[in-house]
Amino acid sequence: MNERTLKVYNSLGDDSSQPLIRLQGKWLQNAGFEPGDLIKLQIRNNEILIKNMHIDIDASDRSE
Fold first, then answer.
1. 2 in helix, strand or coil?
2. Sign (positive or negative) of CA dihedral 22, 25, 30, 35
3. Strand, coil or helix: what is 23?
4. Pairing between strand 19-20 and 39-44?
């Protein structure tokens, strides 16, 4: 499992402070994410799991 350390920023453009996490880079592509992919987030205490939905769609297409 690869790990990355990122910073949580304040969002811009509104009066209240909202957390913002930016994900970008070739490492996303290497992990199987492409521009336009749909993702699903599973949120738990102190944890966010990001799942690429195109993998599920491709797998279900093959089973039909």
1. coil
2. positive
3. coil
4. unpaired
Are the beta carbons of 52 and 33 closer than 8 angstroms? yes
Side chain identity at residue 38, one-letter code: L
Please answer whether residues 41 and 33 qualify as being in contact, where contact means their C-beta atoms are separated by less than 8 angstroms: no
CA–centroid distance for 58 within its chain:
18
Handedness of CA 51, 53, 58, 64 (dihedral sign): positive
Tokens 């690429």 belong to: 52
Q: For the chain, how many residues are written?
A: 64
For 21-58, how does the pLDDT look when each residue is reduced to its tens digit (9 = 90+)? 999 999 999 999 999 999 999 999 999 999 999 865 55
